[in-house]
Amino acid sequence: MKASDLFVKCLEEEGIEYIFGVPGEENADFMISLEQSESVRFILTRHEQGAAFMAEIYGRLTGQPAGCLGTLGPGATNLITGVADSNMDRAPMLVLTGQGSTRRLHKESHQIMDVVGMFKPVTKWAETIYHQDNIPEMIRKAVRIARSEKPGAVLLELPEDIAKLDSLSLPMKPQRFRRPVPHQEQILQAVEQIKKAKRPIIIAGNGCIRTRASEQLRILCEMTGIGVVSTFMGKGAVDMDADYCLYTVGLGQKDLTNCAIDASDLVISLGFDMVEYHPKQWNKGKNKAVIHVDYQPTEIDEHYHPELELVGDVAHSIEMLIAELKAQGGYSFDSSQQLSTRDQMKAELAIHKDDKTEGTIRPQKAIWDVRQVLGADDILLSDVGAHKMWIARHYQCHSPNTCLIPNGFCSMGFALPGAIAANIVHPDRKVLAICGDAGFLMNVQEMETAKRLNSNITVMVWEDQMYGLIAWKQQAQFGKHTDLSFTNPDWMKLASSFGWNGHWCDKSENLQDVLKRSFSEMGPSLIVIPIDYRENDKLTERLGEISCPI
């Protein structure tokens, strides 16, 4: 069997469904082999970065890796931002790159560079295939590493001369394994700490949006009443309508939800990644009692030094805690402060819901209307910019993986290609991407991909004609900001030129109707709203006045 054919057969055996990318000369053999596959679909994109973001969202939504493909040299370098984003946000991904012949890798040669060396810092594993018979082992290893907790990106590089060779090897059958669980003695210690606490609180991180982890967390909270604050990436781990949902933490400034953490005498962190929200933001005094529950031991940090670590499968760990708490009983918690925090934050979320401003639209009103139009299982993707802060604070969720925010590597340009992948995974759900005008134009070429695939997505652009988040942060720190302004295209002509539906909305009371109309249209739709970012400084001022009574 030809090596490139064997490679594809191995991907089929692993259940890989999609590869997104831009091919080149050095992976031509692979592409011809892939064309014969009946189960792996290749999605041609307009830029490799878009391909990586699409593979990332597929991985986040399914828990299974998709491939992103580029050729050697600039094809590989174009992939790296999306790959780094996927790896730091814990999304399984296969990165597949071509390479020149092994006979010229040792010397100066056209487009030759050390791709594997470049990708090692942003992947869980990266390697070159130097022998065709190694393909089954290496693909089996790559997929296993990508899927293993915590998930991430892996890279395999296939030189063009190796792809052409014959091999007698055969694909390896995938084998599943059970994740380890904490020792029962540790569970007993954790239960003892929980029972001693009067105001325990749970911080739900990225690791809690796995389906079974979310289910077990909800059972724990229903049984005990312990309140939950989620990180940006933990949204939906508990239902926003549950009394124990205390909404979201993660802003640079202290928010109302931080008051509930301040008042707690025990923090139970579940599936928490330090890249999501650094502990110095909520444990400045380094004196919080912490129980760490995660798939891996904690990162060492002076502000996050748990007294107890339950290392293993998060869902199973919670299940063990539930069983022991139920068996022992004897716990009683004071939820009054947490319920007060929830009420205050709930009022914040509705503060401008009936706004009728014309000319510009407040961020709070835009997010309120989005929440009213989207159903419990519909999907919102946030790009990176000032809008991300408003989405993180004001958009709350009923279900896991229904608000996708990049918050580890945090790359702009994420949402448009990500929305295309979300529609591929869930064609029966509404999919909305919210972007700033800066982030949207970073991968604007994928508008053609969306039209070619007839993606039923809506992209809402918040236009302020500047890098608004940088302006917001500079203003808060220095009382002024540098020149961050730019001009934009005629949005409706842009939409028309790509064959998209287009809508301009500058009246607050019309926004819900415009959103509903966009979702009733076939194919991709663009909504542009002039955003009132004067609210940024007002929020900064309001947060600065928060005083937490304990």
UniProtKB/TrEMBL annotation:
Pfam families on file: TPP_enzyme_C (PF02775), TPP_enzyme_M (PF00205), TPP_enzyme_N (PF02776)
Q: Which residues form the Thiamine pyrophosphate enzyme TPP-binding domain?
A: 383-529
> SUPFAM superfamilies annotated for this entry?
DHS-like NAD/FAD-binding domain, Thiamin diphosphate-binding fold (THDP-binding)
Domain Thiamine pyrophosphate enzyme central, chain residue ranges per copy: 189-321
Q: What PROSITE patterns would the database entry show?
A: TPP_ENZYMES
Regions that span the bilayer = none
Q: Matching InterPro entries, A to Z?
A: DHS-like_NAD/FAD-binding_dom, THDP-binding, Thiamin_PyroP_enz_cen_dom, Thiamin_PyroP_enz_TPP-bd_dom, TPP-bd_CS, TPP_enz, TPP_enzyme_TPP-bd
> What domain of life does the UniProt record list for this protein's source?
Bacteria
Hey, which family's this protein in? Belongs to the TPP enzyme family.
The protein's name is Acetolactate synthase large subunit
